[in-house]
Amino acid sequence: MKNKLFLDVAENFWQNNLEKRNEKIKENIKVSLYEVDDTNYKKLKRSKGEYITICYTDEVINEYNKVLKKEIIKSLKYFKKSINNYGTTLIIGLGNSSIACDSLGPKTTNKIIATNHFNYLTIPKVALFVPEVIGKTGISSFDLIKMLVASLKPSLIIVIDSLSTNNEKRLNRCIEISNTGIIPGSALKTNKKISSKTFNIPLISIGIPLVIEVNKKMLTSVNIDEEVNKLSDVLAIALNDLFLK
C-alpha cells in the first residue's frame, strides 16, 4: 500500500470550505497550494504543513515537459525559501527499483548529479541515496536513512516516492510536493515517518501517483515503464537545474 495522494483526501473538503489558498491554471497545468493547520488537520487526517499539487495533461508530459519542469522548480523554491540550506542536500529515492510502479524514487535519484564529493565552494553539495526496500536489504528504509543522516548531517532532505490515487485522471498525471514528510511502505504499521520532526532537519517530499486503488486492489497503467521513465526524467532535470544552474 502506498501513501495516498493528498488531493484525493482534500479536494472535497476544500470545495466545501473554500479554504484553498492559491490556484492557477496555465498551459494545461493546474497548480494548487493547500495548507493543513490547527483548524483542519483532524478532519483531513493529515500532518500539518503545506502541500502543492501540480496536475497536468498527457500533452504536457509528452510535448511541453519544459513548462512542467519550471513549475516543479517554482514549487521546490517555494519550500526552500524558508530553509537555510547551507550544507549538503540529501536526496533520497524511496521504493523498489525492481517493480516499475514503485521505482520512481530510485530511477529519479539515479539521474541526478551528485556533487557532495567536490570541494568547490560555488557548487551546492548534493548527496544521493537509494535505501531500496526491507525485503531486499533486511533493514528498514527509515533505519538506513537514520544512520546516513547521523553521519552526513545534511541541511536539507528531499525524498522522492510513488503514491497511490483513487482518481484515474490523476494516475501518472499529478505531482505532489510538501513539507510534511512521508512513510515508506505505509501499509506496514511498524514503518516510521520520514519528516523534518523525525530528524530535526528541513524536509521536502515529492510524490507522483503511479498506482490506482480499485476495490482495495492496487492497479497501474499498461505502459508504466514508459511513464516512469518520462516522469523520472522531468523530476531529475528539475532537481539538477535547481541546484546546478
Gist?
By secondary structure, the chain is of the alpha/beta class. Helices cover 35% and strands 24% of the residues. Strands 1, 2, 3, 4, 5, 6, 7, 8 and 9 form a nine-stranded mixed beta sheet that branches.
Any overview of this molecule?
With 245 residues, the protein is an alpha/beta fold. The chain has one domain (6-244): HybD-like (Rossmann fold), CATH 3.40.50.1450. It is built from 9 helices and 9 strands. Strands 1, 2, 3, 4, 5, 6, 7, 8 and 9 form a 9-stranded mixed beta sheet that branches. α4 crosses α9 (224-244).
Keywords, separated by commas or semicolons:
245 residues, alpha/beta, Rossmann fold, 24% strand
First-residue to last-residue Cα separation? 37 Å
Indicate how many domains the architecture comprises: 1
In the CATH hierarchy, the architecture is 3-Layer(aba) Sandwich
The H-and-E topology, N to C, reads as HEEHEHHEHEHHEEHEEH
Oligomeric form: single chain
Q: How many alpha or pi helices?
A: 9
Radius of gyration of CA atoms, rounded to a whole number: 17 Å
Task: Please provide the count of β strands.
Answer: 9
CATH fourth-tier homologous superfamily: HybD-like
Note the main sheet.
9 strands, mixed
Q: Helicity, in percent?
A: 25-40%
User: Roughly what fraction of the amino acids lie in strands?
Assistant: 15-25%
Secondary-structure-derived class = alpha/beta
Low-confidence stretches are none
Please tell me the overall pLDDT: 89
CATH fold title: Rossmann fold
Dominant shape? globular
CATH class: Alpha Beta
